[in-house]
Amino acid sequence: MGTELGGVNRLYEVMKRLRAPGGCPWDREQTFQTLKPCLLEETYELLEAMDGQDLALHVEELGDVLLQVVFQCAIREEEGFFTLDDVAEALAEKLIRRHPHVFGDAVADSSGQVLRNWEAIKQTEKGKKPDRSAIDGVPATLPALLKAQRTQSKAARVGFDWEDATGATGKIAEELEELKEAVAAGDKQKMSDEMGDLLFSVVNYCRFIDVEAESALEGTNKKFSRRFREVERRLRGQGKSLKECTLAEMDAVWDAVKVEERNGRQG
Length: 267
Hints:
Helix Hairpins
């Protein structure tokens, strides 16, 4: 195997060598089932790298995700089904087919029109079931917030949507009142149902204002954790533990941390 091969082809040849007789025992033992958690873990590591500024880490994590694609293609080639080149070719053809405003005569003046065209083309593609739902294709394993936003987006592409954000905010108010009624009644199942409806409505509003709900909540998770740890650190510096402090004392430190963060961001 020579280094004259292009990067992706060289990678594929390395993978096939690892899987071949006399290759790596661990690589040869892997199956689609054993690779599933690897793909999930590598994807989350890539998402974390995407939030940072470490370019070398970004390259590394992209490579780890690419490895999972190459690994699966190598297994399928061994089975006689398809290769990495087949996957790349199929993807290229799909991109051309679904972008007629770039590679054909269609017109799309906005991202919204592009997505509507994309959805319409999907419905006519060979092999698609005639009874296929417009919201098919959202992975069942997605986190709930992300799944809600993707489902709503797909429904919106076929016109099932509020005209503007006013409808979405009105729905939030409506669902919040219904949740309060369920809480007042002490109906646990109803509370769960209405809380789900409220969260779904908040996600819908996120979509209207072009905010990724999953990313927004994760950002708040990180912000809370950062501030909470700083509160702990400062209280330890005063010789105190959280259990020894009143809520008012903890809130005072929290507010100080929050103000300092905001002033630092403004500066």
